[in-house]
Amino acid sequence: MKKEVFGQLKNGESIEIVTLSNENAEIKIMTRGATIVSFKTYGIDIVGGYDKLEDYEADTGSYQGATVGRVANRIGNASFTMDGAIYMVTDNDNGNCLHGGDGFSFKNWDIDEITEDSVTMSYFSHDGEDGFPSSVLSKVSFTLKNSAVIICYQAIPNGKTPIALTNHSYFNLDGFGGLIDDHIITINADSYTEVDEQLIPNGVRPMVKNSPFDFTSPKKIGHDFGNGVDGYDHNFIICPELCDYNEEFNLPLIASVTNQKLTLNVYTDQPGVQFYTGNFLFGEPNFRGDVKRIKHGAFCLEAQTEPNCINHGIGFYELGDIYEQTTVYEVLKI
Question: Is-catalytic flag, 168?
Answer without folding.
Answer: yes
